[in-house]
Design brief:
The protein is α/β, with parallel strands linked by helices. The chain has 3 domains: 308 residues, Rossmann fold, CATH 3.40.50.300; 120 residues, Domain 2, N(10)-formyltetrahydrofolate synthetase (2-Layer Sandwich); 83 residues, Formyltetrahydrofolate synthetase, domain 3 (Roll). 36% of the residues lie in helices and 18% in strands. The protein has 20 helices and 23 strands. Strands 1, 2, 3, 4, 5, 6, 13, 14, 15, 16, 17 and 18 form a 12-stranded mixed beta sheet that branches. The protein has a 3-stranded mixed beta sheet with strand order 19-20-21. A two-stranded parallel ribbon has the order 7-10. Strand 11 and strand 12 form a beta hairpin. Helix 3 crosses helix 12. It is globular and about 70 Å long.
Amino acid sequence: MEISKRVKLAEIKKIAKAAGIPAKYVEPQGRYKAKISLDFLREKLTRRKGKYILVSAITPSPLGEGKTVTTIGLSMAMNRAGEKSIVCLRQPSMGPIFGAKGVGTGGGYSRVMPSGDINLHFTGDIHAVGVAHNLASAFLDNSIFRGNRFGVDPKTIAWRRVLDINDRSLRNIKILTSGKENGPSRESGFDITVASELMAILALARDLEDMRRRLDNIVFAFTPNGKPVTARDLGVAGAMAALLKDAIKPNLVQTIEHTPCLIHTGPFANIAHGNSSIIADNMALAVSDYVVTESGFGADLGAEKFFDIKCRVSGLVPDAAVLVLTVRSLKMHSGRFKIVAGEPVDKKLFRENLDALEKGCANLERQIGNIKKFGVPVVVAINKFATDTEKELILVRKKAILAGADEAVVSELWKRGSKGGTELAKAVIKAAESKKRFGFLYPLNLSIKDKIKKIAKEMYGAGNVSYSSAANDSIALYEKLGYGKLPVCIAKTHLSFSANPAAKGAPEGFTLPVRDAHLSAGAGFITPICGTINTMPGLPANPIGTRIDIDKKGNIVGLS
């Protein structure tokens, strides 16, 4: 926060001009943030595209490993190197902000600003998603109350309500009513707003018309005969589109060094596809040499979904990937240390321990292999802590190169801003110029189960996949209805390759349990639900929200 106070932000119109966005397309939301009209995208779609860089990570600790810091800092470092770069990020959810992980705007000298606005409410996009989603819930319940003309089987309703706060008490609820005028009782629950299919639709829509079409295709429930009941049936898609008409426009802000940053949409990667919007990426690619974007959590989740879902829809091909790690997290993956969000970190993690580090590198090696399977060059970024020793850094770099990384570079973007990423920028630029043979992990004509098996074995290291009766029934129905050619978007813990968050390193031969499968027909994918993953997180024992306040001048304090 002290760093932020010393920064003099530029007016947002100046940032837009530097990015190559004419003033007529800029819709200011105050002095330091703006929305960009979709008319700009229509004008620029035919321009030659810039290079497309994805930032991912090893399997993270609950504290994260600095992926957002690296994404922001790398874009700034490329600008310092004389290239024109724009960074594209997801919008932070308020769940983690008040919970365990904290802000989603970077840190140190690699951050986007104004941080307080971005992390709390921003331009209202998440609120718009929540209202549109819950409007659909109200329409669905009203249709049932008004005689159930579409024959909805209440037991098949998968469209729960949403709220952008971690609240475990709302995971499973019973809608209790008294009197015929209030409608029937049923089991339901709440998801966090970023898990809404509407958020995934915003992120994957190519334009306003595509968003509207996808909204029509949303499936809320089924009849007893297995017929889907859609938003088109209920007549609610148009009203949802009206509520989302501004949320589909990307948000422009700036980094601490005034690099343009487009922040748009915010799906999690453990319960959704975990990537920012195609619209924002296309805008940035039209006016810059390098676009640096990130995917959520580890490469087995966010990066796989970036390649297999987002790139399929967008038609964009990544030129290089950056894999972020910390020495601390690799030691954790030895299985000898435990990191718990909200609790002090074991001081032993910051002492030299080459044996634990080498064992933990198994996770790094698999994640490098995961990205290489898509034919994309990989540069490893070692997010350096002050306590990392030279021997540890040398060992990690050696392991990364042996595992197939094109380069491995120490990054000091947090401590030094763009100056701390000079070597990383050079390595990424070189990798992006190299030949690549990009390809998807699986063809869409595989069955749903075969696609799940492909990801489970090749990305996670699983030996087998098991299915509950509910999952078997759902998958069989989706195949019967013609949804079997959709990609899959696996929901599982982000803390392990397996469905067990305690299994660190690179476990092999385990069984991946699929307990259910959800259809996201509007977004265009099937979501297998693995293990105990849930779509409404809970607060930790010591929530970060207890530190957040305002000072006498109304400035937000405690966001870090």
